[in-house]
Amino acid sequence: MENSKPVSIPLAGHFILSMTQCPQSEAERKEMNFVPYANVIGSLMYAMVCSQPDIAHSVSILSRFMANSGKEHWNGVKWLIRYVRGSLGAGLKFRSSKEGVGIIGYVDSDYARDLDKRRSTTCYIFTLFGGPVSWKSQLQSIVALSTTEAEYIAAIEAMKEAL
User: Fold this and answer.
1) Does residue 120 lie within any of the structural domains?
2) Domain boundaries, position 42
């Protein structure tokens, strides 16, 4: 991976991952046993928690397949590593504010993007002085029946964090 070309986005749109891409045969499972999928996901989670909130959504998606990852899942992990490698110079930046302490929160959801369970993903980030201080990307625990419901569920999760 040292000679790989860096990419500009954490996980490209052509990576639509699902359980159907998991190994189906015993030979495929044995082949994937030699891939350090869980170790790499753990390292990416550490980077996400400490200093890279921009990879939270991608890590959330890729970590769903740690128990039975396939080749397409591994390709997604390698893509994310290329992104992290290309963003090594980036860092968290905090700016002074003339208006006082201002915590700003952003929240979003993607409606039923999980192809296996048809659940939505909640994403939020809170910034203080322009720098991120809290972030999350997680599969919602229930199935939302509409885009509006998915957004409300995400907003409630963000409000719990804000309080």
Assistant:
1) yes
2) 19-86
Can you tell me the distance from the alpha carbon of 119 to that of 71, in angstroms, rounded to the nearest whole number?
Answer: 23
156 and 124 housed in the same domain: yes
What is the per-residue pLDDT for 44?
97
- Say what the pLDDT of residue 49 is: 92
**The pLDDT value given to residue 90:** 81
Sequence-distant (≥ 6) Cβ neighbours of residue 136 within 8 angstroms: 56, 122, 123, 124, 125, 157, 161
* Sign of the four-CA dihedral 71, 40, 32, 139: negative
Distance from chain centroid for Cα 25 = 28
Question: Which tens digits make up the pLDDT trace of 23-80?
Answer: 999 999 999 999 999 999 999 999 999 889 999 999 999 999 999 999 999 999 999 9
Q: Which of residues 86, 114, 144 is at a domain's end?
A: 86
Number of domains in the chain: 2
User: How far is Cα 6 from Cα 102, in angstroms, rounded to an integer?
Assistant: 34
